[in-house]
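Lab notebook page, bench 4
Experiment: in silico fold of construct C2
Operator: M.H.
Input chain length: 219 residues
Purpose: comparison with the prior construct
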Amino acid sequence: MYFSAMIFHKETAKKTAELLLQINAIKLQPKDPFTWVSGWNSPIYCDNRVVLSYPLIRNYAREQIGKFIEKEYGKPDVIAGVATGAIGIGVLVAEYLGLPFVYVRPEAKKHGRKNQIEGYVEKGQNIVVVEDLISTGKSSLNAVKALREANLNVKGMVALFTYGFKIAEDNFKKNNIALHTLSSYEYLLEQALETNYISESELKTLSAWNENPSEWNAN
């Protein structure tokens, strides 16, 4: 069962998936899996920072996320990006909306001003968090925690893509944060199959991985 978060729109989800596959921001290799830092074997690798190298695609992502934020939240006071992957897209969204931008480190610096939140914020401001990728949600929600501890009102989080793990759904519910994404693993597989990027047998392998990624083995 996929956790699809809340997708903007099906056509947007499929279009985003198509673009990410085209530029190899997402690679699907069920027969030659990747190894993540966590040690998990994975038939998918996602690096959405590649989007920044393609002006038309980054502008598409910027506008889709920016328009959604305006529709869903009005004009927040600040846009926050999660370091480091979402700093670039977060800046683009903030620029599109004409809003201030800050970014959140995984932890406070050990020197200087010892900031975890970089940029200017004031207590009580409304803030929307931008992410590039949701896996378990741990690092994303760590940023939310830091913003809340700074007495900021986190309205929600918007991301380019989610793997759709059940653990992410549980983590976001537990922390009472609404997550919306441009696309998801579910729509990625649908788009990849329709465009013959993967076969039916590869679809089964990719679906099986998503059900239990920590225990999955390509063999």
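Observations: The two ends are 22 Å apart (CA to CA). The mean pLDDT is 93.
Next step: discuss at group meeting.
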